[in-house]
Amino acid sequence: MRWARVLLALLVLAVPARAETCRFTVYLTIDTGWMDRAEQIAEVMRRHDVKATLFLADERTYRGDTSLADSWAEFWRARVAEGHAFGSHTLRHWYFRGDLGTDRVRFVPWGAREGTTLDAAQMCAELRAVEDRLKAMTGRGLDPIWRAPGGRTTPNALRFAEACGFRHIGWTANGFLGDELPSDRHPNRALLAQSLRTIRDGEVLVMHWGIRSRQEKYADVFEDLIIGLKSRGFCFATLTEPTPRLTAEAQR
Q: What is residue 95's predicted lDDT score, i.e. its pLDDT?
């Protein structure tokens, strides 16, 4: 009977794995943030073959450096090799706080009342500086998409970016995963349950590689989110392949 067991094993190996059935599509996007759970999140995506769209800014990280410093080059090279999409999140990760006429936009640090103003050329330089850093570290450029910090745009900011070749991508209401909310009022299990209950076909999801202020780290339920969505027939795609039909909400 030994030969029969060997034959059975060979037959099992010869049967191709069942292809994943995709009934719905979601678009996972990840902003830089504190980066303290970056490796954990990346490992989950590798294990489940999830492709995401990564919006990059040069933010301070838990290491004491910034997320586009050379010290992060190996991390970004690995993400390029995995086939993720990349967009600009502005170099400084400041916030757009209103237009001045038709030719300038106010750009200020988080929590500050004053900052600077950008004209169209300076806005383009702010977005392209991210591409320069990514190319220096990985040889790869950006996809023609961007996201304003906090998702907060102005008419001038959108117009300047579009003239520079960048389309704005926000997120959908059900796609807000809540990883930046206070965990005492929004624990992981509650956020996870809400997402699995409300996410629908075509949603654009948003999270970060880590949030400094959150005590219970969302990364600890990230794999549960992936497994839960896949079990419901969701597949993950980037925002560039194929180009999705985004709602006006996600493009704000």
A: 98
What are the tens digits of pLDDT across the range 132-171? Answer: 999 999 999 999 999 999 999 999 999 999 999 999 999 9
207 three-class SS = strand
Nearest Cα neighbor of 67 from 81, 86, 82, 45 is: 86
The DSSP output letter for 60 is: B
What is the distance in angstroms between the CA of the first residue and the CA of the last residue of the chain? 66
Neighbours of 250 (CB within 10 A): 23
- Domain ranges (residues) in the chain: 20-251
Vertex 183 angle, CA 182 and 184, to 5°:
95
Residues of 135-145 as b/e, b for ≥16 C-beta within 10 angstroms? eebbebebbeb
Alpha-helical runs (H) found in the chain? 2-14, 38-48, 73-82, 120-138, 155-163, 188-198, 219-231, 248-251
User: What is 20-251's CATH superfamily?
Assistant: Glycoside hydrolase/deacetylase (3.20.20.370)
Give SS3 for 132. helix
CA–CA separation, 136 and 45 (whole Å): 25
- Could you read off the pLDDT of 156-167 as tens digits, one per residue? 999 999 999 999
Owner of token pair 């910090």: 149
